[in-house]
Design brief:
It is a single chain. With 361 residues, this protein is an alpha/beta fold. 45% of the residues lie in helices and 19% in strands. It is built from 14 helices and 11 strands. The strands form 3 sheets. The protein has a 7-stranded mixed beta sheet with strand order 1-2-9-6-5-3-4, sandwiched between helices.
């Protein structure tokens, strides 16, 4: 495959590859060996992905010459619950998945989180290969080992770090992605450019029409470049004790908005887009250069929202205080300038209120 690009997540004790390229799914068995003691594959997907790509995934896995068991979940964030996790554990026990076997998570961020968390905990840890089928998952959610389920009190409050054996990111799969889901993935791409990669930011700005049109060559570069940002940050900080927190740019407010709206009512990328506009306004209040125009132009180019929040700040702050990123007070990622993220805490309430007004309805 001439356009195959392999990015290493260079963790000291657990390095693994991200393979990106058109048609890479069909070469899964060539690029990733199953665990040496594996007898079975637990393929976890959802109904939408199974209908679109199920045959292709099963054909790729057949070349491992292992027994394949498939669990098909209902699509949507509403399924990412402890009850679903229990159902997956019981299914894995019922079909005879053992510690030496392998889970394959084929889907978007919901499937990746659920299957990854199940793999992290079943038999105290089973290998997992991530095959992300959404843009958001290919550039972010499938990379770095974060797995979780939601609670009514907050998003991703219960989870585990469980690094995959490999990530197979095939941009061909994005051709069937609905436009709103494609846009939600572009929010994470834009975030990666804003915090770390000026070239990616230029690509996203200059080639918006080509990217929205799903040009495969350009899209492959976008996925690989954005995935490389995530890989580099994860390699520096596997468990979010330092630089990895910068990947939460826009997420502190974004997660709160998702919780208040109901997880299926406000897609993750749209919430993060609003969260980044809030963070840009907050940076100005804290004395940093005003980059709100750049944020707005980039987000609007991909049909992402830049405001419209109807909730009161006090309600938002209450949800933020339950977030897993809370650490002796609310913490926010802001940009000292483009490509220069920093973590701030003890932010004056007046600054928070002024920044929040910038994204109010």
């Amino acid at each position: 495959m001439s356009d195959l690009r392999t990015i290493e997540v260079a963790l000291p004790n657990r390095a693994y590859p991200i393979h990106v390229g058109a048609g890479v799914l069909d070469r899964l068995a060539d690029l990733v060996a199953p665990p040496p003691r594996a007898e079975a594959v637990a393929l976890i997907t959802d109904a939408n992905v199974a209908a679109l790509h199920g045959d292709r995934v099963n054909d790729a896995l057949a070349r491992w010459d292992l027994r394949v068991e498939q669990l098909t979940l209902e699509p949507g964030e509403a399924v990412k619950t402890p009850a679903s996790l229990t159902a997956i554990w019981r299914w894995m026990a019922g079909v005879g998945v053992h510690r030496g076997d392998v889970v394959v998570a084929c889907g978007g961020g919901v499937v990746g989180d659920l299957a990854g968390f199940a793999a992290a905990t079943f038999h105290r840890g089973v290998e997992v290969v991530q095959v992300p089928t959404s843009l958001l998952a290919q550039v972010d959610a499938a990379i770095g080992g974060k797995t979780a389920v939601d609670l009514p009190e907050g998003k991703n409050l219960v989870g585990a770090f469980h690094q995959p054996r490999a990530v197979i990111a095939d941009p061909e799969l994005l051709a069937t992605l609905p436009d709103d889901e494609f846009a939600t993935g572009m929010a994470e791409v834009i975030k990666h450019g804003l915090i770390a990669d000026a070239d990616l930011l230029s690509l996203v700005r200059d080639e918006a029409e080509t990217i929205v049109g799903r040009d495969l060559s350009t899209l492959s570069r976008v996925v690989a470049d954005a995935a490389a940002v995530k890989a580099e940050v994860v390699a520096q900080d596997e468990k979010e004790s330092g630089p990895r927190a910068h990947l939460n740019y826009g997420h502190t407010l974004g997660h709160a908005l998702e919780t208040l709206a109901g997880y299926d009512a406000l897609p993750h990328g749209r919430a993060v887009a609003i969260g980044m506009m809030f963070a840009a306004a907050l940076a100005v209040e804290l004395g940093h250069p005003d980059r709100t125009r750049e944020h707005r132009e980039l987000l609007e180019a991909y049909g992402l929202p830049t405001g419209g929040v109807a909730h009161d700040l006090d309600d938002v702050l209450e949800v933020m205080a339950r977030d897993k990123k809370y650490d002796e007070g609310l913490r926010f990622v802001v940009l000292e300038d483009l490509g220069r993220p920093t973590l701030v805490s003890n932010v004056p309430e007046t600054a928070l209120r002024k920044a929040f007004e910038a994204v109010r309805a």
